[in-house]
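Sample pair:
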Amino acid sequence: MKSRETSGFYKATTNSDCQAVLKKLKSSSSQVGNPFLLPMLIFQEELGRIKDRQRDIRRQVRRIEDALGLRLGRQADTNPYTFNDGTVDFEFLNRELVECSAQLQKRTPMVYPEALKNLEEAMEVYGAAIPPTIDAAETINCHIAFMSRLRFQQRRIRVIETYHSVTSTRLTAQANALYNLIAQKDNKLNYLVAVESRRIAAASKYEGTAMRTISILGIVFLPGTFVASILSTSFFDFQTATVSHLFWIYWAITVPLTLAVLLAWILWYRTNKHNHLELDKQLELSMPNLAERRLSAK
């Protein structure tokens, strides 16, 4: 107060725009006598960057909500998180949600109210030390203006905190909706895979039964029956090595009988196939909108 000089260090990182703060400091020559001018400008610049970042995050959150269908009346045809056929790119959407959450938690506004409170206490001490003289009238008016600016920044940070809380809640809701959609897609795919596996198993069992029937008939009965039938007839005379002229009777009986057996097997095969088809129809009826599920899964 006696020297009317204020010394300090402005330490900034590469992410902070210190040049903009210094430019505003040079343009505020009428208020440069107040030692809290530079801290106030730093707070204003920092809160402005936080507000701009929150605005970008909210814009990105709205696009995510459009892709997930959480905003009624919005079309996701031109949404960057959807494919050309309108389906949602869940992998890309999940990465964007994680990125939004990380950006939202970067420099959270919860740390600034305490700093503004400390600044307010320091400004009150400074205001109490200003002598109430005519020469100090300009300093007092400048200090009152700075106190008003401080009150404005405190209200501003409360608004930013509200936006931060609302955006965080929206991101949480979208993450839950995304995980639920992914779980539903997985359940649909698992259900369809189970149905197709059941059909493949039923078809394999059906074909295996038919092949097993033919194999059993061919291996067990037909060779022995054929040889025994031929050799046991009177058409062959092994003593004289002659064949009877009535050998045609064997073919007249064997061929129709073989055809009858084949016909019976075909009827059984078709009946069994019809039963399997009926089971498949009952399975499809038990699945609501099976065709739509297949299309959505594809």
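Strands lie at 236-237, 242-243.
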